[in-house]
Amino acid sequence: MKILGIIPARYASSRLPAKLLLEVNGKSVLQMVYERCLKANSLSDVVIATDSTLVEEHVRNFGGNVVMTSDKHPSGTDRCAEALKVMGGTVNYDFVINIQGDEPLMDPENINRLSASFKITSEIASVCIRIKETDVLLNPNVVKVVMNEQQEALYFSRSPIPHLREVATDQWVSQADYFKHIGMYGFRADILEKVVKLPMARLEIQERLEQLRWLANGYKVKMVEVFSDGIGIDTEEDFLRLKQFLNR
């Protein structure tokens, strides 16, 4: 089973421009992500897919594998589909893992756990982590997932799900299981080629969550629980937290 790890690396960012090239102790956020991916022994190859010649040059300078992709892609999933094609497509790889480029403290074991799920799933897989704090549960920037008994996603939402009737909101995390969705996706290679051709779904537009497009079209998303979450770099405050953590 050959698995390609792809890190979509779009240069532009609305909240923190060029965030992937920000450096701590001589290493960029993107290089840290790439090096963590190399520690995941389940990946056959790792490649960064970008639309920027600046990112391309940066990756080549630290010795990484990089491919250029279109600057017209609406999502990282679309960028991954083009990168897969550049890398030889389904002839060369059985599965693809889409790895976020702004998670420099990502645990390589999360990739290995996701890769292991390919033995029992035939379409799409992703990861989640248990929510233990009320403020995380109620934060609309934190995507929640609810699953069936086979650990397949029933729905993703920015709202806390399930809703516990007649239980105070601050007691929810102690009364039920809640899971944060972590945006790392695994696809069977031919399925990735298919899902990027689907039109946007109504629920996807309403929640601003592309994974709802796949559920709306009947695809199953196998969820894998992980036990380590990193620091996503979306704002200047996030980057300062990263610097403080690494310098400790």
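Next protein, fold it too.
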Amino acid sequence: MRVRTLVTAFGIMLSLGAASCSTTAETGNIETSQIFSDSYGKVTDSGYALPAIPIKKLDTKFHRQIIAYPSTEKRGTVIVDTKNRFLYYVLGGGKAVRYGIGIGKQGFAWKGEAYIAWKQEWPTWHPPAEMAERKPEYAKYVEKGQEPSISNPLGARAMYLFDDKGKDTLFRIHGTPQWNSIGTAASSGCIRMINQDVIDLYSRVRPGKGARVVVL
């Protein structure tokens, strides 16, 4: 009897241990197999000290997570849902990594298809001339550019979107120091992400025409 009790207890412990290896939740009707709410701490990256994100202040749906995502798109495709403020990186097998994003203000938003032609760590920011006309304080950066820093509007990473003819669309997927803009329409047209998230996405993307981006 004692042996049977020990075996049963051991089996329960194994079950609990296996369950603790992953987090499963429901976000609306979307099954979430893993959520990375603990991945927003301080990060030192290439000598730059990124501060921790007060992630509890941001709606959980905008935290990085792996979700069930049936799609006919190939693995590696990036899908941007501007309406719901999500970016999906298709993993294949009916799953995707979902990130919260900020998008362009009304009148500056862009939709269409492109590909990630190249990517850069800690990029220099060159605002377009049109932005400098609207905001003269940025004029000095049009030619010279703003050097990389934790306050740079492009954040820790940038991915550059080109059209199918190889022309720069002037739109970027990039990091931002303004974590509280995630879930809003606050940027001047580009797709912004929390720095810790854009570092994760950057590590997954392989530039080239196979790195398709669909902006809905």
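About the second fold: The helical segments are 2-19, 129-134, 141-144, 195-204.
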